Amino acid sequence: MDKLIIEGGHALDGEVYIGGAKNSAVAILPASILAGSTCTIKNLPNIKDVYNIRNILVQLGAEVKEDGDRLLINSSKVDTYRVDFELSKKLRASYYFIGALLGRFRKAEVPFPGGCDIGVRPIDQHIKGFEALGAKITIEHGIIRAEADELRGSSIFLDVVSVGATINIMLAACMAKGTTVIENAAKEPYIVDTANFLNALGANIKGAGTDEIKIKGVDFLGGCEHCIIPDQMEAGTYMIAAAASKGDVLVKNIIPTHLDSISAKMKEMGIKVVENGDSLRVIANGRPKAVNIKTMPYPGFPTDLQQPMSVLMSIAEGTAIVTESIYDGRFKHVDELKRMGAKINVEGRIAVIEGIKKLSGAPVCATDLRAGAAMVIAGLIAEGETVISDLKHIDRGYEDLEEKLLGLGAKMKRIP
Ligand code: EPU
Questions:
Q1: How many A from CA of 124 to the centre of ligand 1?
Q2: pLDDT reported for residue 67
Q3: pLDDT by residue (tens digit) across 270-306?
Q4: Residues of the chain with pLDDT under 50
Q5: Which residues contact 276 (CB under 8 A, 6 or more apart)?
Q6: Going by DSSP bridges, is the β-strand pair 13-17/248-252 parallel, antiparallel, or unpaired?
Q7: What local confidence, expressed as pLDDT, does residue 119 receive?
Q8: Whose CA, among 68, 87, 352, 392, lies 20 to 30 Å from 313?
Q9: How distant is the alpha carbon of residue 7 from its chain centre?
């Protein structure tokens, strides 16, 4: 398995171009199952999760072809509602095929999804939504089966704010009879992006981006051309890497408001963040000030950047309290950071990080996607050499990570 060797101590400097949002792409590609004709998708990130979703579309019978930087998907010939077991377990977002296939065929069989091991990740709210629309759900032998004679609009109040459940219910409800209302809906930019895509196909969705989404069922969805929004987590990762390395980086092709919670925290830490149109410049000189962080659903501080941010805290001046309120297992990077000298104590969902002057390079593991990003940032700022193993997690969600960092002056190489 590949390893990444990083020589630490080089400040990042220059410009980095952000790709399309992973969590939009992995929802919009399955959503194309609902379309009656060709969907043209632009700005798809070049990552393994997208590759795996494409494979599922092909397995289901969709025609998928590349045309320059666009992906053309025609799902009109899809004739099965069964997703392959091996393909499904490769990523979390395979659960979106339940909503999409149920919406299209009134039937879906999707093996339990895979994805990062970051704690308990139930899908009870997805199921609650499908059942409210009239579907019968059974789970046997690791396969989720959904079936309905007819899907009828309904009112669904989510017990927890869930990105996946909000999108999945939108997918199933688009062509249901009558109106569906999702209350306590997630507000992440991916929800808005997916709703915009579905509306471009002919759906009638209002309120995406607020906590109440109304979906009036329509009889038919056509095709469309859609450009995926920029990846706020990729952008946030480079912002944090720039700050941690005491660098000066222009993060380009972003929607700065999607990053407000990160920019605000950075400013609180004494890091300069300058917004200019669709880019943000991050300039850092000395050690940042330690600040407290609590992860929250959007627009709060995202759980997906908690791990990279912990690296910044590990070299900050003072002590930071990091509270992870979304996942109960998202501190796996802490043991790895401790190998590099970080002073962190974890008690349940709280990590107390006592900033030190410097991390020291060590062999570490990318235990999940964002832990991997955290380890890369740690390697960039550590004294000496860091060797990161288990890169498959990073490859699932970061487009051309090494090329982009090398372009900013980092020193690293991947070895088989
Ligand atoms: N939850 C439930 N029941 C459900 C669904 C969720 O209790 O039916 C709980 C979860 O256990 C968690 C919270 O609700 O505590 C939020 O989970 P959510 O459903 O929002 O997460 P998700 O849809 O499975 C997406 C992203 C994650 C990101 C979270 C939170 C995708 C494919 N994944 O996951 O992305 O952390 O939202 O923003 O969109 C990542 O990119 O590294 C990543 C893990």
A1: 12
A2: 93
A3: 999 999 999 999 999 989 999 999 999 999 999 999 9
A4: none
A5: none
A6: parallel
A7: 79
A8: 392
A9: 28
The helix/strand/coil state of 388 is strand
Q: Given the structure tokens 């590609």, which residue do they identify?
A: 29
Q: Does the CB atom of residue 236 touch ligand 1 within 6 A? A: no
227 is catalytic: no
Angle formed by the axes of helices 96-105 and 124-132, nearest 10°? 10
Q: Count Cα atoms within 13 angstroms, Cβ side, for 74.
A: 7
User: How far does the centroid of ligand 1 lie from the alpha carbon of residue 355, in Å?
Assistant: 29
pLDDT of residue 217: 98
Q: What is the pLDDT of residue 39?
A: 98
What pLDDT was estimated at residue 117? 80
Any ligand 1 atom below 6 A from CB of 369: yes
The enclosing H or E element of 194 equals: helix 189-201
Beta-bridge partner residues of 353: 320, 344
Which tens digits make up the pLDDT trace of 209-266? Answer: 999 999 999 999 999 999 999 999 999 999 999 999 999 999 999 999 999 999 999 9
The rounded distance, in Å, linking the Cα atoms of 211 and 244 is 34
The protein residue with its alpha carbon nearest to ligand 1, atom 26, reads 23
Cβ neighbours of residue 133 under 8 Å, at least 6 residues apart?
148, 151, 152, 153, 154, 169, 172, 173, 176, 180
Q: Pick from 326, 328, 330, 369 the residue to mutate for probing ligand 1's pocket: most ligand atoms within 8 Å of its CB.
A: 326
DSSP states of 306-362: HHHHHHHHHTSBSEEEEE--S-TT--HHHHHHHHTT-EEEEETTEEEEE--S--B--
State in Å: Cα 292 to ligand 1 middle: 22
Atom number in ligand 1 closest to CA 116: 44
197 lines ligand 1 (CB under 6 A): no
Ligand 1: does its nearest atom lie under 6 Å from the Cβ of 180?
no
Nearest to 137, CA basis, from 101, 167, 92: 101
